What we know:
This protein has helices at residues 10-18, 33-39, 67-70, 92-105, 125-134, 163-174; strands spanning 2-3, 28-31, 40-41, 47-48, 51-52, 61-63, 80-81, 84-85, 109-112, 140-144, 150-154. The chain has 178 residues and is an alpha+beta fold. The radius of gyration is 17 Å and the shape is globular.
Amino acid sequence: xxxxxCDPATRxxxxxxxxxxxxxxxxxxxxxxxxxxxYFELLPGASDDDYNAYxxxxxxxxxxxxxxxxxxxxxxxxxxxxxxxxxxxxxPLTYAYLKALGRRIGVEVSVNTSFNVAGPxxxxxxxxxxxxxxxxxxxxxxxxxxxxxxxxxWHGGERDSGRFTQWLSEWKSVQPVA
Length: 178
């Protein structure tokens, strides 16, 4: 699940309304290398191109003082984050998402947490739709197939917050006509 790390209420909202778990549970930051270096104290050598342990979320990094104010949703109570660094050559789609976030909200960082609601991680499109149905706080599920085809599903009726449908409407209005 991806979310805005700048909103201090993101952690509480995801834990309470989506993941149904304790409010104290941390959310992980996902970032470009440049953003990770700006907001966190990375271990020497651990983020090098030939050995990027931060690709796999196996290390925590101490946040720098300004990170708590700017990206509070992904800085844990102890001042650390279990960061994932995304490089363009490894994951061009996610990297493009992070760069777009940088242009939109000013940080190339996103909340990155497992896609599940009080149970196993969703691994199929059917499980993803079921996860959307069971959550009170998810707006939409967007799935990208291996051929690049994008599929989206969202709540309708009373559970539709309008955030996704408003974004989709705005996005369609600026797309070139084919």
